[in-house]
Structures are given as structure tokens and as C-alpha cells.
Design a protein that fits this description.
It is globular, with a radius of gyration of 12 Å. The longest helix has 15 residues. It is built from 5 helices and no strands. By secondary structure, the protein is mainly α.
């Protein structure tokens, strides 16, 4: 049985709904893509509504920790990865 992402720590119903709208409906879907790719997909679909907080929430959810407990170094790494994928050659 698939568990709703809204039931995961750090993710609420709005984030879960946006993720579902871009094809990420379960923890398995999220794990298969990874936090950065999932964030990019959501950011592309909802550019004004999605912020870096979603990226941090996704990474923390996969790690089973509160997003506020992510180190500044990890947040910087996640942000750099997300931005690297959004730049056009």
C-alpha cells in the first residue's frame, strides 16, 4: 500500500498535492527520483508557489529528520544541485 506523502514528516497536504500533480504520489516515487529531481519537477510546474523549503523538506523527509535539523552545508549542497540542473547550456 502506498503511503500518502502528506503523512510524511515535513510535508503537508499542499506539498503532497503539488507533488501528486507532477507524478510523485508516494514515498517510493520520491525515493526513486530523489529530493533534488522531485523539487525541480515541482518547481517547474509551480514556479511561484514552490520554494527551497520544499527541497529541504523533501530531503529531510527521506532522511527521517526535521527539515530544520539539516546542516547549512547540506542545504547549500542541495541548493547548488537544484540550481545546476536548472541552468541552460
Amino acid at each position: 500500500m502506498k503511503t500518502s506523502l502528506a503523512d510524511h514528516r515535513n510535508l503537508g497536504p499542499i506539498s503532497a498535492r503539488r507533488l501528486a500533480e507532477v507524478g510523485i504520489e508516494s514515498e517510493a516515487d520520491l525515493r526513486a527520483l530523489g529530493a533534488v529531481a522531485a523539487y525541480r519537477r515541482a518547481k517547474h510546474a509551480f514556479p511561484r508557489q514552490v520554494s527551497l523549503n520544499l527541497l529541504y523538506a523533501l530531503a529531510a523527509s527521506l532522511a527521517g529528520v526535521d527539515w530544520r535539523d539539516l546542516s547549512q552545508e547540506l542545504k547549500a549542497q542541495l541548493k547548488a544541485e537544484a540550481e545546476a540542473g536548472s541552468k541552460k547550456p
